[in-house]
Amino acid sequence: MNPRRKKRLAIISVIFVGVAAVVGLVLFALSQNIDLFYTPHEITKGKDDTGLKPQIGQRIRVGGMVKPGSVKRNSENLKVSFVIYDLKDEITVEYEGLLPDLFREGQGIVANGSLISPTRVLASEVLAKHDEEYTSPEIAEAMGKGKHEKPTYTDEQLSGSGKT
Fold it and tell me: Within this chain, do residues 71 and 116 fall inside the same structural domain, yes or no?
């Protein structure tokens, strides 16, 4: 092999190794920052199709309905804990900060955070749905709901002259 070809081969090899290292570092960084969506049932029992459960310390996104009567606020600081549930299981979410204005009991929420025990999530962000008609597809599926249908009323019901 002549010296010119050796030099080209060395340059191409260095470029290839550099690109592979960059791709490897990017994939590693992405895997550390990915938030997978789970329902309370999937956190406690694992995903239905794979049985995969989140590990303690893993960053996750969890969604469910806020259990009525479960919201506990610390009067000395902004710490709040509440229980979210689906039709099968429930977990406790702990959060420090201001909750969204639309947050209330009996409503669907999504919390971003990390799993600190098999049934507790330390949330870094809490998101509430924006109106009464919307429920995220994941939460609706977990709760066993189909599409929400608006109730239909007769003219008598609307005018108030109907029997009640």
Answer: yes
Average pLDDT score, the chain: 81
Task: Give dist(CA 40, CA 85) in Å, integer.
Answer: 6
Q: What CATH number should be reported for the domain holding residue 44?
A: 2.40.50.140
Which tokens hold the place of 14?
């260095």
Taking the whole predicted model, whether its pTM rises above 0.70 is answered as: no
Query: At a CB cut-off of 8 Å and minimum separation 6, what does 134 contact?
Result: none
pLDDT tens for 92-132 read 999 998 888 888 888 889 999 999 998 999 999 999 866 55
Q: Is 80 helix (H, G, I), strand (E, B) or coil?
A: strand
Q: Number of structural domains, the chain?
A: 2
Confirm if 105 and 66 have CB atoms less than 8 A apart.
Answer: yes
Q: How far is CA 142 from the centre of its chain?
A: 13
